């Protein structure tokens, strides 16, 4: 994807005069990268590759965020009111949900045609399907359960990877000195790669990693709240004792990421991850909650970091970006913290050699 699709596109963007809207591009990239891991490259989505059609599908992924509170927190009431003619969820959202479900069912049906449980390497699709079948599911229920789980994963990739990359490029475009520092690191790693054949992002890239971590701290793709219901015994949470059974509680990365280990928390300063001492870093990592943690933590964190490192390395090794058109980038409240204007317009230029 990087060499065959992203690199030629970057080259053409850098030659044109036009500003590029990057939120849809990065969301398309996130969806395609992870769905290639799920289904194999031949069976993956083509949102990024075929951006014309891809943009329509990306719009569906945005549209289904509407009315999410009602659908997830009060599903029975939502259905009941719908039957009475009161629509808490817009019809367009219901249609978009159906379109995405059909798309994912089609991807699964295509994968099923080449499904060989005994053949390596196993795709995520093959492993999930095999294990769910072993647990007793079959027929339509098996097909729909696999498709529902995999659509959730593509949904997480589209928004999680797309938003994090968009905010990283937004901040880098406003901070040319950090862009230059990052390019210096990537050029060194590229030289090293040519002599050692070690993939660039497998090397130690502290600036790139600090850029991503600081972006996820200031602009968490999933800022919360993340709801949980207390179990059947009275629960203690941190300093709060005696929380009754069946109480909805939540935590937010948005607030945790502004906690005491992060002085001037609103400032995007990747240096804080590079210059802090061991004790400060330990505290910062303890408060960092970009991928959640524990049993409900993110299972897509490793592949997301890998995809995002590959993307940013491809962009900033050879190109410079700057803001082409002002957009309101304040993150909206919700499951995913989408920027208010839902767009980011950047200019891409071939990078000047570093002096
Ligand atoms: C930069 C990208 C991503 C970010 C920032 C992100 C963030 C998160 C966060 C904060 C949680 C915890 C939610 C909670 O505590 O309720 C989570 C859970 C999860 N994520 Fe991700 N995610 C990303 C990408 C992905 C990808 C690519 C996948 C799919 C392969 C994925 C699949 C999941 C799953 C299955 C869960 C667990 C849900 C549960 O058990 O309730 N995520 N993610």
In short:
The strands form 3 sheets. Strands 1-7-6 form a 3-stranded antiparallel beta sheet. Strands 2-5 form a two-stranded antiparallel sheet. A two-stranded antiparallel ribbon has the order 3-4.
Structure description:
The longest helix has 36 residues, at 139-174. The strands form three sheets. The protein has a three-stranded antiparallel sheet with strand order 1-7-6. The chain has a two-stranded antiparallel ribbon with strand order 2-5. It is mostly helical and 355 residues long. The mean pLDDT is 93. The relative contact order is 0.14. The protein is globular and about 65 Å long. α3 packs across α6 (91-113). The chain has helices at 2-15, 22-39, 51-63, 68-73, 75-83, 91-113, 124-134, 139-174, 176-196, 206-218, 253-256, 271-275, 278-287, 301-318; strands at 20-21, 226-229, 235-237, 240-243, 248-251, 319-325, 345-350. The chain has a single domain (2-8, 11-350), classed as Cytochrome p450 (Orthogonal Bundle). Helix content is 57%, strand content 8%. Protoporphyrin IX containing FE is lined by residues 34, 153, 156-157, 160-161, 164, 221-222, 226, 290-292, 296-300, 303-304. Keywords: Heme, Iron, Metal-binding, Monooxygenase, Oxidoreductase. This is Cytochrome P450.
């Amino acid at each position: 994807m990087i060499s065959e699709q992203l690199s030629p596109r970057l080259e053409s963007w850098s030659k044109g005069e036009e500003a590029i809207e990057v939120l849809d591009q990065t969301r398309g990239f996130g969806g395609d990268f992870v769905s290639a891991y799920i289904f194999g490259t031949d069976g993956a989505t083509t949102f990024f590759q075929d951006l014309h059609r891809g943009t329509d599908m990306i719009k569906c992924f945005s549209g289904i965020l509407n009315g999410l509170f009602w659908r997830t927190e009060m599903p029975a009431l939502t259905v009941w009111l719908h039957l009475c003619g009161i629509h808490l969820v817009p019809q367009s959202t219901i249609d978009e949900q159906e379109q995405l479900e059909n798309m994912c069912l089609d991807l699964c049906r295509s994968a099923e045609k080449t499904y060989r449980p005994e053949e390596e390497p196993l795709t995520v699709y093959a492993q999930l399907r095999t294990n769910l079948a072993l647990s007793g599911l079959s027929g339509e229920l098996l097909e729909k359960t696999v498709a529902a789980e995999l659509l959730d994963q593509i949904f997480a990739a589209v928004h999680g990877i797309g938003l994090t990359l968009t905010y990283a490029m937004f901040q880098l475009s406003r901070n040319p000195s950090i862009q230059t520092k990052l390019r210096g690191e990537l050029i060194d790693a590229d030289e090293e790669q040519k002599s050692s054949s070690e993939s660039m992002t497998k090397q130690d890239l502290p600036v790139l990693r600090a850029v991503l971590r600081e972006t996820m701290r200031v602009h968490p793709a999933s800022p919360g709240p993340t709801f949980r219901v207390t179990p059947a015994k009275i629960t203690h949470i941190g300093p709060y004792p005696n929380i009754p059974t069946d109480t909805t509680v939540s935590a937010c990365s948005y607030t945790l990421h502004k906690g005491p280990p992060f002085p001037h928390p609103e400032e995007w300063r990747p240096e804080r991850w590079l210059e802090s001492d061991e004790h400060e870093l330990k505290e910062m990592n303890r408060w960092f909650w970009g991928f959640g943690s524990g049993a409900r933590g993110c299972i897509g964190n490793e592949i997301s970091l890998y995809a995002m490192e590959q993307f940013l390395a491809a962009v900033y090794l050879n190109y410079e970006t700057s803001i082409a058109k002002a957009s309101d980038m304040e993150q909206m409240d919700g499951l995913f913290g989408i920027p208010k204007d839902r767009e980011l317009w950047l200019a891409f230029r071939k990078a000047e050699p570093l002096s």
